[in-house]
Amino acid sequence: MNCSNCGAALNGRERYCPMCGQPVNGYTGESSSTDLPKIILDLAAENKRQNEQIIQILKNQNEEIKLVGQMLNTVSQYFIAKNMFK
Question: Is the C-alpha dihedral spanning 63, 56, 2, 27 positive or negative?
């Protein structure tokens, strides 16, 4: 499911698009106090999902940085060895 305004991907539980704020599926913004626990739980679940995505992105970046460091180390060792035996 995508936002009708900006096209952002939606998981179907949102009442507003997280990218542009457009109400989803005609949601009017009106809710009763009995809806609040569900709304809070939905927001908490979405927050947890987004945090897990951020953590995975950071883990991937750390792995890439580690690989770049290893490559730089290898290149440095090559040039040191090359210059030692001139």
Answer: negative
Rounded CA gap, 18 and 7, in Å?
11
Distance CA 40, CA 13 (A): 12
pTM: 0.50
d(CA 71, CA 66): 9
| pLDDT one digit per residue (tens) for the chain, 86 residues | 888 889 888 887 788 888 888 888 766 566 666 777 888 888 999 999 999 999 999 999 999 999 999 999 999 999 999 888 77
What string of DSSP letters covers 31-74? Answer: --TTTHHHHHHHHHHHHHHHHHHHHHHHHHHHHHHHHHHHHHHH
Contact assessment for residue 17 and residue 8, using Cβ atoms and an 8 Å cutoff: yes
